[in-house]
Amino acid sequence: SDVANTFMRRMAEAASLVPQKRPTATVLVPGRVYWLNKTAIYGGASTTAWQNRALKFVCALGWHQFEDWGAWSSRRAAEIAFGTAAPARSKFRVLLQLRLPPQRVSDNMRYVETSGVSKLVQFDNDKATWVSIDTQSDDNGQIKISLERIGTIEQVDDNRPIFVGVSAIAYHQRDDIAARLDVLESIAFTKATA
What's the helix, strand, coil split of the chain in %, to 5? Predict the structure, then answer.
């Protein structure tokens, strides 16, 4: 027992010396729309394509693999997380293109943004809908949004449960009019050509 106690004490001492810095989230550029689908993330071998592969980490916790349209969350609460180059506690507007699966009983979803504020969102149909979220970055300049399904949810495949789908993300600082226009134009032109 002396050897085990010494080992555990030394491990605790060594662990206390490791800096408690959180891993850096993928940093997104404000004013740009990022499409979260298999082609956008994995397509091509160019430098841009390799940089886009880091986008998969925006879907931080609780997501299935990317499909041609986007990704489904694999549990009731899934997390979107990304970094910004702005100072800590900066105010942002995040836009997410979301959808609910067709076999839903409840049309509701709740999001919880970085500072803990939550809001209920209702979906009218199975089509993708843009959801606007006002939030602020944390002390590390990161933004985290939890997407939570509430109510009864019927699953088609119990081996692969799905709750919320995400297909795009964009953000800008709340007072950055140019970045806001860039996002809105990208969304409008994409809809017109899709």
Answer: 25, 30, 40
Which element (helix H / strand E) includes 179? Answer: helix 177-193
More confident residue, 189 or 20: 189
* 120/107 Cα distance (integer angstroms): 10
Q: How far is 10 from 31, CA to CA, in rounded Å?
A: 48
pLDDT per position as a tens digit, 67-120: 999 999 999 999 999 999 999 999 999 999 999 987 666 688 899 998 888 999
Pairwise CA distance, residues 45 & 49, whole Å: 6
Contact 92, 145 (CB under 8 A): no
pLDDT band at residue 23 under the 50/70/90 scheme: low
At residue 161, φ and ψ (nearest 5 deg) are -70, 145
> pLDDT confidence of 193, banded at 50, 70, 90?
very low
Alpha carbon dihedral 83, 96, 153, 75, in 10-degree steps, equals -20
Residues 106 and 150 sit within 8 Å (Cβ to Cβ):
yes
CA distances from 159 to 52, 100, 156 (A): 29, 18, 9
What value does the CA radius of gyration of the chain take, rounded to a whole number of Å? Answer: 19
Q: Tokens 């609460």: give the residue.
A: 77
